[in-house]
Amino acid sequence: MSPADYIIRDPKICNGQPVIKGTRVTLRTVLASLAAGDNVDQVLKAYPSLNRESVIAVISYAAASAEEDLPVPAVPTL
Fold first, then answer.
1. What is the reported pTM?
2. Which residues, 6+ apart, have CB-to-CB distance to 54 below 8 Å?
């Protein structure tokens, strides 16, 4: 399955932010939890409406987004 099978963007749900289908859990929320150091099991415990596949879909979506031409800050020179 692809991330599109798990992720939707609907202007009527969370102001159009991407969410996991069937929930009001935003991708930003899941990614922030992971970035803060939570593992997948901790995310699943915090958001019982999610399943492992949906969290993996969020990570895949983020990875695909990172492949686009997003600006990357330059490495500072000393």
1. 0.81
2. 6, 20, 21
Measure the CA–CA gap between 15 and 68, rounded to whole angstroms. Answer: 24
Phi then psi dihedrals of residue 68, to 5 deg? -75, 175
Report the C-alpha gap between 60 and 12 in whole angstroms. 24
Assign domain 3-64 one CATH number from 1.20.1250.20, 1.20.1440.20, 1.10.10.10, 1.10.490.10. Answer: 1.10.10.10
pLDDT higher than 90, residue 30:
yes
